[in-house]
Write a structure and sequence with these properties.
This protein has ten helices and eight strands. Helix 1 links the parallel strand 1 and strand 2. The relative contact order is 0.15. The structure holds zinc ion (ZN).
């Protein structure tokens, strides 16, 4: 089954035509996980899941927003308790060294302080996920020069004993990918696979064991070819599936079935 394991129909980009976009998801006969990036968008993801069959929600405070609001774990626990069948994961959470300067502008004193705050909030999400037996949706991004984000994510996950979840929009190297999979994590691939010229992602897609692979759009961002430059939407995850199928040398139907079953199992989708 076609499943977009990570997107943001809960974001403002869809405020004018959300019902049409959701209509196209139904037409495509797919399931969709909407991912929160702060408390308000987490709540919105739950609302969408309540109102629409085949839409599900993940709750979290994105690492680039840890200076916009505090991560109050009770608020998130409350939402989980009241929406057991809608909430299927915790995140997105993780480490982002690309946007560190933004946090300095928001009042952080130093890069070290931002990093330790991100880690503290990340660890809070990991505990919340483990306490509720939910998988994690992990965001990682290296800085232009600082390439330590994925290594730090690995250390934190391993130290906390986390074993279940996805490193979404995977952007680390092959060596790091192997360590995440060894730990038990899935890797998520976006539309970047349709236009990446570095060869790194292709190498990772070729290598990844079938049972650890997910596909996603991260819509409204990262629109795949042939729609690159336009707003992304969940039904375009098919183009990610097509590219992954080409790289792995199998049929697109096979990739849709494998990644769909992986998402159903990881997130216990009903
Ligand atoms: Zn996202």
């Amino acid at each position: 089954m076609l499943i977009d394991s990570h997107c943001h129909l809960n974001f403002k980009a869809y405020k004018d035509d959300l019902s049409e976009v959701i209509g196209r998801c139904h037409q495509a006969n797919m399931k969709v996980i909407n991912v929160g990036a702060a408390l308000d968008t987490s709540k919105k993801a739950v609302e969408l899941a309540r109102d629409n069959k085949d839409l599900y929600a993940s709750l979290g405070l994105h690492p680039i927003h840890v200076y916009d609001e505090e991560f109050v774990v009770e608020d998130y626990q409350d939402i989980i308790d009241n929406n057991k069948s809608e909430v299927v994961a915790i995140g997105e959470t993780g480490i982002d060294y690309f946007h560190l300067w933004q946090c300095l502008e928001k009042g952080a004193d130093s890069i070290e302080e931002v990093k330790s705050k991100q880690e503290k909030v990340f660890r809070g999400h990991i505990k919340l996920a483990m306490d509720n037996d939910l998988p994690l949706i992990v965001h990682g991004r290296n800085g232009k020069e600082d390439k330590t984000a994925y290594g730090d994510i690995y250390k934190i996950l391993k130290d906390a004993g986390a074993k279940r979840g996805v490193i979404h929009c995977y952007g680390g190297n092959l060596e790091e990918a192997k360590k995440f999979v060894e730990l038990g994590f899935h890797l998520g691939f976006t539309g970047i696979v349709t236009f990446d010229k570095t060869g790194v992602l292709e190498e990772i897609v070729k290598w990844i064991p079938n049972d650890k692979m997910l596909i996603e759009t991260d819509a409204p961002y990262l629109t795949p070819e042939p729609y690159r430059g336009k707003r992304n939407e969940p039904s375009y995850v098919r183009y990610v599936a097509e590219k992954v199928a080409t790289i792995k040398g199998v049929s697109v139907e096979e990739i849709i079935e494998i990644t769909g079953n992986n998402a159903i199992n990881l997130f216990s989708l009903k």
